[in-house]
Specification:
By secondary structure, the chain is an alpha/beta fold. It contains 12 helices and 8 strands. Strand 7 (231-234) and strand 8 (237-242) form a beta hairpin. Helix 2 packs across helix 3, helix 3 (80-92) packs antiparallel against helix 7 (185-202) and helix 6 packs across helix 10 (245-251). The longest helix has 33 residues, at 29-61. Mean pLDDT is 90; it is low at 63-67. It binds uracil.
Length: 291
């Protein structure tokens, strides 16, 4: 029986119970998780069909120019929120990352406001992100939230995403526990059309690439020290590369308590705020002055 037919059958059983006066049913959390997956898969399938129909139409309208292939994904929806939701449903079913066999199964897409002026991009979800299905919620994420707060921003007011939409597996992923690893170039490339399409939908004023891996995934090569402190361009959007929040956490073990790394990130964030047209107070400008 297909997942859709099973969901329909379940709906009928629940409806029967409701007619008999039941107002609650006990559901095993594991089954609830499976039901949610069915719903996500159905949405992804519907989004794929709509996209295929649109692609077919545009193929009929505009003959393809030889050698020109857009890396962007065509996605339907009448608002940014709807487009991002449809794109996330498509990522759930995307064949390329799954075909690699090196990524774990849970898809983690993005969080925050699709109408935001600021978009932050990391490399891939880790243990905590996979557990909560949300980017940047582990220790590095908590540090990122603090940086945003210092900038005068709530997490919900920016858009946060990752290049790789699945947690990279270690030794097949079976007994990985809390261990994480950075995504490979192939893993990021397999997911790249998604982040490029997110950028195209959001069109933020500024992008921040968090760490060298994310920067390289977006095509900005070099150590963070050599590429930070100036704007690059990704899909026409000014893009700042800065140290990953987990680098700041590690640098707190250094003799200076991480001051150098923190001051560098803050200098980058002041440039980002300026570029985004955000107000900057004298106190914010002075955070690391004279330290
Ligand atoms: N590191 C990342 O790059 N992304 C996350 O979502 C979490 C940690």
């Amino acid at each position: 029986m297909s997942a859709t037919a099973a969901a329909q059958l379940l709906r009928e059983v629940l409806e029967q119970k409701r007619r008999k006066g039941a107002s609650h049913v006990r559901v095993d959390p594991e089954d609830l998780y499976k039901l949610r997956r069915v719903k996500q898969q159905d949405a992804a399938r519907a989004a794929r069909v709509r996209t295929e129909e649109r692609q077919e139409l545009s193929r009929m309208e505009e003959p393809e120019v030889a050698g020109e292939k857009s890396p962007l994904i065509e996605v339907g929806g009448s608002s940014r929120e709807e487009k991002i939701a449809n794109l996330a449903a498509m990522a759930e079913e995307a064949p390329a990352p799954r075909a690699l066999g090196t990524l774990r199964g849970t898809m983690v897409f993005s969080v925050g406001d699709p109408n935001a002026q600021l978009m932050l991009i990391g490399e891939a979800p880790g243990f905590e992100e996979e557990r909560q299905s949300e980017p940047f919620v582990g220790p590095a994420g908590q540090r990122l939230t603090k940086i945003l707060k210092a900038m005068g921003l709530e997490r919900s007011k920016v858009y946060i995403s990752n290049i790789c939409k699945f947690r990279p597996a270690i030794d097949g992923g079976g007994k990985q526990g809390t261990k994480n690893r950075a995504p490979t170039k192939a893993e990021m490339d397999a997911c790249l059309p998604f982040i490029l399409t997110e950028i195209d939908i959001i069109r933020p004023k500024v992008i921040v690439a968090l760490g060298r891996t994310a920067a390289e995934g977006l095509g900005i090569e070099g150590s963070v020290a050599s590429v930070r402190g100036k704007f690059h361009e990704v899909n026409g959007i000014p893009t700042m590369v800065t140290y990953h929040p987990s680098y700041i956490l590690r640098s707190e073990q250094d003799a200076d308590g991480g001051l150098k790394a923190k001051a560098a990130v803050w200098a980058d964030m002041l440039m980002v705020m300026d570029q985004a047209g955000m107000p900057i107070s004298a106190k914010q400008r002075a955070y690391f002055k004279g330290k």
